[in-house]
Amino acid sequence: MKPQGIPYYLKVTAIAVAFFCSCDTSEKEQFNLDQFRGEPAAIARDVRMVYTDSFRIKAILTAPLHKDFSNLSLSHSVFPEGVKVIFIDELKRENIITADYGTLYDATSLIDLQGNVVLQASDGGLLKTPQLYWDAASDWIFTEETFNFSNPDYDVIATRLDTNKEFTKFNTGKLTGTVAVQEESNQ
Question: Residue 45's domain is classified under what CATH number?
Answer without folding.
Answer: 2.60.450.10
